[in-house]
Amino acid sequence: MIGFIGAGSIGGAVITGLVKNGFDENEIIVKGGHSNHTKLLGDQLGFQVVKKVKQLEDTEVIFIAVGANALDSVLAELKEIATDKLIVAFTGSASVTHLKQELGNVKVAHAIPNTPVKVGAGFTGITYSDNFTEDDKKKISSILGYTGQLVEVPEAQLGILGTVAGCSPAFLDVFIEALSDAGVKHGLNRELAYDAAIGMAIGASKLAKQSELNVSALKDEVTSPGGSTIRGVAALEEYGFRNAVIKAVDAAENE
Ligand SMILES: NC(=O)c1ccc[n+]([C@@H]2O[C@H](COP(=O)([O-])OP(=O)(O)OC[C@H]3O[C@@H](n4cnc5c(N)ncnc54)[C@H](OP(=O)(O)O)[C@@H]3O)[C@@H](O)[C@H]2O)c1
Known about the structure:
Layout: E1 2-5, H1 9-20, E2 28-31, H2 37-45, E3 48-50, E4 61-64, H3 68-78, E5 86-89, H4 96-103, E6 107-112, E7 122-128, H5 134-144, E8 148-152, H6 158-185, H7 190-210, H8 215-221, H9 228-238, H10 241-253
Helix pairs in contact: 6-7, 6-10
The structure holds NADP nicotinamide-adenine-dinucleotide phosphate.
């Protein structure tokens, strides 16, 4: 059995990704917050919803998906039952050091998923406490593997990895919307423009992932001398596209 505390945007996305990709919903227990959001999601996906953290006692792994404001009160409740469990917190401020301070010497991890976990195509960075064994890590991989890629990194890199993989779905959405606007400006209907832009983003990403060439070489392959694509690439440079992306990451990193 696995437990969740909080099933909002990211908790709900991870749970949805698990269930929609074959993880048994009967193996999931969720303690929700004050609204009836968790109950509605539970009715939809079939997992059990409970009212108290203590009711997660029979789980082996607990994922914490509450915001920073609720973290410490949740940890205080969790402390009673945490001893023999693997605790994984998605909360941005839940460093491994902080989790251990609040829970004692239990096995804790800090993970930052992104929203594509919802469709099993997520990218999650994770940092484990020193007392996590290889078998414990395999256990977490075997669960979060249902939601996409899981990559272990030192905690110092978790924040920037969370920005590059976690804030960027919104950046890509803006790009897709702009590309679709351009298609409409030049005569495509909106639906076809969105289909083309989204289909391209999926296909180009798959190609970038599977190709032996890096993205720069893939770009070189489709830019024939004096052709339309290199003219478009030059316009992106002229209007500061590359710099805008770097500045977007800077802005996300600097509170
Ligand atoms: N959204 C993302 O893409 C993302 C990605 C990675 C990490 N994170 C981090 O994950 C954390 C949560 O973000 P979020 O976007 O998912 O926020 P959110 O949508 O506000 O979800 C937080 C959930 O926690 C529930 N909650 C609050 N107190 C609780 C308690 N005592 N027991 C059980 N549940 C409780 C709330 O339920 P009620 O509303 O019903 O009270 C709410 O559904 C943040 O620290 C964020 O930085 C988010």
